[in-house]
């Protein structure tokens, strides 16, 4: 099965075209590029390059975050468009499950990120599953919570103030494709929801002058 996989939840957009079905997945295309919150052009350029190099996929997979509000919306919209246009299955998984190496995932790790507004989000993951779903904490409470699983390394896509023993890591589109190979797709007309932990910050327009 040929799977086109996308994650745009962080400052790096990850796009992969993977042929699954053998013991070792064959990576036909892989591109990780900087991804600005206000500009998703690199994501769409990577998708275009993946299809030009490898053809149309048999399925598409997308990461659901948590992460960038605009990035998640762009990635999910692109994945749904591919699935609808090609009449192919759409898979969707929380992005933190695709962080780190297979070895780290087997041993267990913390995934963390800056949720802005004075909060970090944390999730405990082992063997590709959540031991603890993503939850918001203040930075101080986050440090205390890490001590509940002191043997787990802490992975984040950006530095987090106050957390020194931190490994920079991003969700990997290839890992998402491997999950899609054995997982169940969304419904044929279902558009998956981004994993938002709080409402997006919206700047209200100034009141018009009278």
Describe the structure.
The protein is α/β, with parallel strands linked by helices. It folds into two domains: 107 residues, ATPase, nucleotide binding domain (Nucleotidyltransferase, domain 5); 69 residues, Nucleotidyltransferase, domain 5. It is 27% helix and 29% strand. The protein has five helices and ten strands. A hairpin with a 4-residue loop joins strand 1 and strand 2. It is globular, with a radius of gyration of 18 Å.
Q: Categorize the overall geometry.
A: globular
Percent range for helical residues? 25-40%
- Major sheet description: 5 strands, mixed
Give me the count of strands: 10
Count the helices. How many? 5
Tell me the strand percentage band.
Answer: 25-35%
CATH-defined architecture of the largest domain: 2-Layer Sandwich
- Give me the strand/helix succession: EEEHEHEHEEEHEEH
| Terminal CA distance | 61 Å
How many structural domains are formed by the residues?
2
Poorly predicted runs of 5 or more residues: none
Q: Under CATH, the topology of the largest domain is which?
A: Nucleotidyltransferase, domain 5
Round the Cα radius of gyration to an integer and report it.
18 Å
CATH class of the largest domain: Alpha Beta
- The whole-number mean of residue pLDDT values reads 91
């Amino acid at each position: 099965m040929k799977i086109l996989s996308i994650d745009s939840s962080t400052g790096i957009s990850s796009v992969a075209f993977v042929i699954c079905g053998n013991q070792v997945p064959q990576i036909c295309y892989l591109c990780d590029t900087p991804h600005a919150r206000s500009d998703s052009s690199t994501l769409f350029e990577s998708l275009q390059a993946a299809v030009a190099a490898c053809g149309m996929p048999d399925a598409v997979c997308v990461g659901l975050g948590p992460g960038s509000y605009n990035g998640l919306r762009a990635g999910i919209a692109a994945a749904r468009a591919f699935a609808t246009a090609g009449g192919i299955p759409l898979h969707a998984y929380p992005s933190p499950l695709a962080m780190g190496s297979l070895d780290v995932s087997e041993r267990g790790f913390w995934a963390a990120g800056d949720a802005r507004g004075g909060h970090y989000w944390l999730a405990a993951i082992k063997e590709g599953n959540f031991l603890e779903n993503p939850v918001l904490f203040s930075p101080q409470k986050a440090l205390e919570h890490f001590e509940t699983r002191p043997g787990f390394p802490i992975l984040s896509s950006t530095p987090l103030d106050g957390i020194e023993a931190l490994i920079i890591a991003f969700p990997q589109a290839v890992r998402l494709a491997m999950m899609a190979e054995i997982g169940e797709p969304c419904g044929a007309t279902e558009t998956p929801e981004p994993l938002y932990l709080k409402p997006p910050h919206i700047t209200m327009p100034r009141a018009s002058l009278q």
